[in-house]
What does this fold into?
Amino acid sequence: MQRKYYLAALAVLSATTLGGAYAAKPSENDALAIAGAKIDMTQAVTAAEQHVGGKASRAEYERYKGQWAFDVEVVKGKRVMDVKVDPASGKVIASAEDKTDHDDAHDRAD
It folds into this structure.
């Protein structure tokens, strides 16, 4: 019986230690990583909208090719464009038509 309690306590301690180690990496948390951006979300959205000539429907800060970037979805007519904006320069670094991707949470129909 004591062995079960020992294993349960060990599992809780391990999870707490690993969780604390993960939380100590601010660069892996997009909410904290955005503090290093030279431009803000509003500027990124404006750059993306001007690039496409449409209206932004969603924007977030995420990893793109190993670097942080603003990811902005811009709607123009019946097309949705996925625009990546460099957080240091504010320039568009990539743009492509966004096809519905059902494994992305923001593209799923609820």
